[in-house]
Amino acid sequence: MYGGSRYHRECNTILMDNHLIDFENIEQKLKEAFASPEYKSLARKVNKAKRIFLIGNGGLHFVACHAATDMTRLIPDKSVYSFDSVGFITSNANDHPYDKLFIRWLDTIAQPEDADESLVIGMSCSGKSKNVLDALVWAQENGMDTFMISGKSAGVLPESVHELAVNCQYFHTVEVMSLMLFYDLVHRTGNRCPSIDQEIRRKFDE
Question: Residue 93 pLDDT > 90, yes or no?
Answer without folding.
Answer: no
